[in-house]
Write a structure and sequence with these properties.
- 2 copies of one chain form a homodimer.
- Helices cover 52% and strands 11% of the residues of chain A.
- The longest helix of chain A is centred in the last third of the chain and has 28 residues.
- Chain A contains 16 helices and 7 strands.
- Chain A is α/β, with parallel strands linked by helices and 352 residues long.
- The interface between A and B is large, with 54 and 56 residues.
Amino acid sequence: MPRPQRSAEEYVRGIRAGDRVVLAQAITLVESARPEHQVLAQTVIQQLLDTPNSKPKTQNSKLKTQNSKKPNLRIGVTGAPGVGKSTFIEALGMLLVAQGRQVAVLAIDPSSSLSRGSILGDKTRMERLSASEQAFIRPSPAGDSLGGVARKTRETILLVEAAGYDTVFVETVGVGQSETAVHRMTDVFVLLLLPGAGDELQGIKRGIVEMADILAVNKADGDRIKLANQARAHYLNATHLLPPAPSGWAPRVLACSSQDGAGIPEVWAAMEEYWECVQANGFFTKNRRQQAQYWLQEALESGLRSAFYGHPEVKRQLAALEPEVLAGRVSPFAAAAQVLRSAGFIPLPPEV
Amino acid sequence: MPRPQRSAEEYVRGIRAGDRVVLAQAITLVESARPEHQVLAQTVIQQLLDTPNSKPKTQNSKLKTQNSKKPNLRIGVTGAPGVGKSTFIEALGMLLVAQGRQVAVLAIDPSSSLSRGSILGDKTRMERLSASEQAFIRPSPAGDSLGGVARKTRETILLVEAAGYDTVFVETVGVGQSETAVHRMTDVFVLLLLPGAGDELQGIKRGIVEMADILAVNKADGDRIKLANQARAHYLNATHLLPPAPSGWAPRVLACSSQDGAGIPEVWAAMEEYWECVQANGFFTKNRRQQAQYWLQEALESGLRSAFYGHPEVKRQLAALEPEVLAGRVSPFAAAAQVLRSAGFIPLPPEV
């Protein structure tokens, strides 16, 4: 990785100062698989967490005061390919930039592992937003597993927030379990829908509608306004059938056009209302705590699994025992007990 | 656990001889949480697997020859409470007993952990079948987790098969993920449905219809025959919309009455057809291998987790670090790395 070697302190200073080059390099460090990069990245993150940013970014200190009561907001955005996620984020992002907010756009795209970045890879997709000094756009990290990709994005959120970005979008396409991962690292979850009623449910994976706090029928412009309203009515009905969400918030269904901007302020107003609701009832804090707990457990257990399956004795025993188990000659439970014992992971029970 | 202490060899001999008392005691051993019972149970199971039963149970050797080409069949049965699972199993079980088959009925009911056995607990629910010498009925094991309960049932299948039972029913109510667990330990999966079309889908959890190889609308008798046929048409339509199953088998939708026996032979005929299909295309064997692999991984990882979270240093560190992570003062990933290192589960990366 050709890059000037920096100390943890240099990264921290640069990020705090809002230096976009240093921020980008720190994210590259987080995304690196090399153990020494990982250790350095953790040191940087920990120093940033130890000394929270007290002063807002200078260039917008005047504007920022109007948002001073609002902490960082993490916004998850998902929807089928072609629904217009990038244009939606750009339209909403430009509105927020005009309000003085600092906007970061991240992405989780497990499908990009092969193509090395299919979403957000082409920065021209958010031309206006990427030209703004108040916006920072980062393509999806490459990785060989959703868990790895999601973890990097979750850590990148901490970096961009430390650099002063108060609104973080995390975009994902509906591949595998990526929506669940995004849902677990954001405060509010937006599902974008296509105009036209009824059939849309087919294209949306089960459980995604239930996760959404805000459903927005995008492309509600020109000839599609009527279809968009049909879709809106359809999803209004569908969300009424859902059990109450743990947030205490009833999902809002809106129509908007990322192209002409109609309805975008209303989407933001709904997010602000959501924010007021979950601040008032304590869900905002509770949810962030639960998310931290989830990522702790996830990190512990994925680390545990890779240590275990990488253990030479485990590898050796599994290579010998697995064919016996598959052929039905050894019970899976007996084989598991033997492998665990041989690796010293559990105390040997008394012999009988 | 008051029981005459037996050696592994005594259990094996008794089970092989079809001694129902010894079989019941061996199952109790499998269900025991005590480590020395677990070790003995594994020894028994391994000895049974090492020396497969060559001769059929003497009492039915004549009848058994007609089924000699058919290996043990494991049948999962699920459906909403009140659909008549027990009466269905009894009706089908009596038919199989009359054909000379040996029938065992097991259950997974995670909800019974508190009540200590709500399904099959009352043996009078299968009065006729439980009176048959060719049938063996065992209530759901108690346990504090679905994983534990499912594991015990999966091991019990091996015991009853070693005792000569060639047809094993595993019944479950639709609680939590119990259908998935049953699906992962059986060869053919039967979903029982109630008469009346349309609304039934509401009561059935998502994904269950997709798992079913055979859907049977039960209680198709008296006034309900018309409703049952409506439900059958409804589900025929629903299954036509499903993507092809990995088994290569198109799910069959039937109507039956466990009360008057109508349609029960047809359900069995469909199972035999299913069996022919998956024997011919190799899915039967492939599926059993995949199931063994699943249970191996499940046993490895649950053993790993309990060893890890039970480790004194892990407990100590987690107690100190978890509140910091939840409060957002320490990154979940940094905390996880520290806990894993302290417990010696991963090599310490080079210091920076």
